[in-house]
Amino acid sequence: MRKAFAFALSFVFLSAFGVSGHAQVAPPVKRTPVVAIPHNHIYDEKADPKALIAAAFQKARAEHKRVILDFGGDWCGDCQVLYYYFHKSPNVEVLNANFVLVPVWVGHIDTNLDLAAKYGVPLKHGVPALAVVDARGKVLYAQSQGEFSDMRYMDEKYATDFLNQWKP
Predict the structure, then answer these.
(1) Mean pLDDT of the chain
(2) What is the structure's pLDDT at 18?
(3) pLDDT above 80 (res 16)
(4) Distance CA 114, CA 122 (A)
(5) Range of the structural domain that residue 144 is part of
(6) What pLDDT digit, counting tens, does each position of 136-164 carry?
(7) 69 CB contacts (<8 Å, ≥6 apart)?
């Protein structure tokens, strides 16, 4: 019985640590961004976001569109990728026909937090963070789990699907 136990223990030890005696670790997964894009100036830190949102609602009512509030910053690589995907065909056509896009500058997640909270978007999960609002101000979608905060590793189809899901 002792020999069987010793053999089993040896087998477990060698299986877990290999013949060399070191723990075997899987090589790290290399995450390569999907796309390399130019840096764009998207978010105007001097703009009054409340005025931009009010103007967007007025335009959305007149044109029967919805409003996308895009909380982020120019420093954010994922924000840059989302902007790139939104402004690439076929997304730009869907965006322009169905939405008024409002970029809301959040500094380094320390500015305009009241607006993000008003529209139900918790910025603690990262940016870009989106809300889709109807022309009357009713929130139809508020990002809650950082769904776009890894955009540089996502395919542009994710943006396409999002726009098609929330268009009027």
Answers:
(1) 86
(2) 46
(3) no
(4) 10
(5) 49-166
(6) 999 999 998 989 999 999 999 999 999 99
(7) 53, 102, 104, 115, 119, 121, 130, 131, 132, 133
Whether 122 is covered by a domain: the verdict is yes
Q: Measuring CA to CA, which residue among 153, 158, 149 is closest to residue 73?
A: 149
Q: Domain with 157 in it: what CATH number?
A: 3.40.30.10
Amino acid, res. 130: L
For 120: left if phi > 0, alpha if psi spans -120 to 50, otherwise beta; the answer is left
Residue 13 within a domain: no
- Asked whether residue 21 is assigned to any structural domain, the reply reads no
Side-chain half-sphere CA neighbours of 20 within 13 A: 4
Count of the separate structural domains present in the chain: 1
pTM: 0.79
Residue 133 is assigned to a structural domain of this protein: yes
